[in-house]
Amino acid sequence: MLEIHHLCVNYDHIEALCDVSFSIPKGKIISIIGSNGAGKTSLLNAISSVVKIKSGTIELNGAPLPLKPHEVVRKGIIQVPEGRKVFVGLSVQENLVMGGCRGTATAARKKMPEMYALFPILDTRKNQLAGTLSGGEQQMLAIARGLMANPDILLLDEPSLGLAPLIVSQVFELIQKINQMGITILLVEQNAHKALSISDYTYVLENGKIKMEGKSSELLGNSDIRKAYLGK
């Protein structure tokens, strides 16, 4: 579905990604794990065309991905950014309407009940300003806002960051539900154990390069992975 070939991204003279190649098959959860500064967010931003690619290619269903962020969105690739970045001065419902900008206003209104069914807490907070929500509620709103655009591929950047353990578990359960709805997911996550537990395949990113890859279930038992990322 999505193919990345020999991707390189630089910030001035600093190399963020070097010769990164991988694929995201339709209907799967693919995870990217690695330490801070490994290049995980740069990878998602490159796919979203938020940062400029130095070299390499990104293809969606065999065709080059557009170079402008809004065109990537129209192709069905939606990013939920690190740190949630909800519109704090807008209500929950207004945030969801903003997420539905890929389609018509009528389509957005029809999509809203589906989001409230998937995220019941948002239904009870629909008229509340997003900035007054808890961290977990804001994360759910950010994901729901992304889903309002009817994505084919959802890019999730550190969805568990800063959340309490109970909320983290709820978020990962929701990610699995979203995948069961037929949405392909690329998950960037520092919580390696959670990422490996729910994904089909995992790439380990270190210093901007893929150092290891494999079925997530197999990497869970890999001694190097357990020592470096699982604390075992």
Give the helix/strand class: alpha/beta
Low-confidence stretches: none
Q: Give the biggest sheet.
A: 6 strands, mixed
Question: What would you report as the Rg, rounded to the nearest angstrom?
Answer: 17 Å
CATH superfamily heading: P-loop containing nucleotide triphosphate hydrolases
CATH A-level architecture? 3-Layer(aba) Sandwich
Strand order in space, largest sheet = 6-7-8-3-9-10
- Which class in CATH terms? Alpha Beta
Helicity range: 25-40%
Coarse shape: globular
Mean of all residue-level pLDDT scores: 93
As for the number of domains, it is 1
User: Based on the structure, what is the oligomeric state of the protein chains?
Assistant: single chain
Separate helix tally: 10
Report the span from N to C terminus: 35 Å
CATH fold topology: Rossmann fold
Query: Could you give the count of β-strands?
Result: 10
Which range does the strand content fall in?
Answer: 25-35%
Describe this structure in words.
The two termini are 35 Å apart. The protein has 232 residues and is of the alpha/beta class. The longest helix has 16 residues. The protein has one domain: Rossmann fold (3-Layer(aba) Sandwich), CATH 3.40.50.300. A six-stranded mixed β-sheet has the order 6-7-8-3-9-10, sandwiched between helices. It contains ten helices and ten strands. The mean pLDDT is 93. Strand 9 and strand 10 form a beta hairpin. Helix 3 crosses helix 4.
